[in-house]
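G., the chain you wanted modeled:
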Amino acid sequence: MTREADETRDVTPGGAVSSAVRVVLADDSRRSRRGLRALLGTCPGVEVVAEATNGLQAVRIACEVIPDVIVMDSRMPTMDGVAATKLLKRRRPGLRIVIVTMLAAVRQAALAAGADAFLVKGCPPEDLIDAVLGGCDRG
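Predicted structure as tokens:
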């Protein structure tokens, strides 16, 4: 975990520091974001801290809330997930980015842009949780 991420940990009322993995969801589909939020909500130690509806918004939010992971669709309006990944990796190299998309054909471009994991929507839920927690290979 980066020092930058450590500095943004929430302090609980008792003074303890929360060590939850902070996640931003970026997908233009509200339904997809809801599904991802519900799935990640079942995983102890994972906290969804924000949502974005396009890649540009994901970049802005990532600079404001300093998440550990962004789960991002590849095709979104304004800025797609691959372009957002490339920009985010330049600004925050330690940020983990998981591309989750229906478009298997963008795998190479996503990994070349710096995505840490690439999953096709509909994959087993365990694969997504693994990728968010850092256990997924780059492929």
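The first helix runs from residue 3 to 6.

Shout if anything looks off.
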